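Batch manifest, entry 17 of 40.
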Amino acid sequence: MSSRIPISTLNTGSGPRDSKPESKRLESIGPNLTSTEPFTVTQIVFSSIPVRADTHWYFVEVSDPDGVTGVAEFTHGEQSMATSRAMAEMADEIRGEPIEDEASLPAMLGLSVALLQGDRVLAAAVSGLRSAILDGQAQRAGVSLREMLAADEGQVPDSVELYANINRSMLPDDNGPVDRSPQAFAEMAGRAVEDGFHTIKCAPFDECRAPFDSRGLPPEAAAGLARIAAAREAIGPDVTLLVDCHSRFDLESALALEPELAARGVGWFEEPVSYRESRSELARITDAASMPVAGAETAYGVELFESLIADRVVDVVMPDAKYCGGPGEAVRIGRSLEKLRPGSVSMHSPSGPISLLASAHATAAFAGSRPLEHAINEVDWRATTIDPAEHVHDGRLYLPSGPGLGAGLNQSLISKSGRRWTI
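Output type: structure tokens
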């Protein structure tokens, strides 16, 4: 087995090849199968479906010799195909080897935690495989993923509270840019409240990108503040309003912006600067802020998340199942940090239904006290991407009762509108 998989050696290929695998989700099991029974990967298949404009959702399915198939989402923007190539090479390394614990996968591949923390493509590839294998293991055990992850923690809920990320629905669609005026933000936030959400998140600072020409609060922030004010007026004082800054600021501008957000009743200040490139600056912002500072949506591994909270780089970490190591690692993160500092974990999930479902199982398993992110109103057919369909009602995701994730990809939809391939 190789000591690592250099990203430069991954097979870029000439493009995906169509593949229609014979696979199944296990509906019932024999009495001899347990949650510790190894899962052996014999087949790996990728698929994707166009969502809107340049957005696609990407999925991986891994099957064992019995045809039991675990699924995960690995949507990674422009790096999605590179992630699939990395995943394919990893799968070749472990093909036919019994995997008892998905957390052992990096060690089996010779990939250090430090390497995965520094390489987002490798982290996303490992996370995708770990997630899919875990789904398969829970299916073989005949239990839901949340029950397997909760272990001896007692009964787990069958639904989790969501917060509404309105930004995905306001990005360009197939016809081009959409209205991002203050009034449009107000209308979308108000629509989320009508749908039963008690927490709304927006990303309003389109015009901002540090460094700025002036000191203090940059004039470019005025448009974003107007969007926030309009959203706040639309939803009223009792609904929580979160703001994501997408690392568009620097230390000085973020410190000047925070009081303006506080004055508009903002509930958290998400990633004003990057936790990767500006860790010390982010810690200074967190220390000065009157509201919680959140971030680290692309971090990998429990150790890094623990250090971000212990060093008070942020008040709230946002593990994403697609990057952090999968739902199993998310549960480790949640259990560790919620005991240390209650309310310090809120899972990041702005992608498709498979990602949301995995994140919800993890949130239920570690009894997360903060709501889970959900990108609302991106496309009207979203719920049908999985079978059974995604069930969101009054701001909650209701988890299916079947083994593993409880749902798989809607293969008819993928065949009609998406594509499948192997590498």
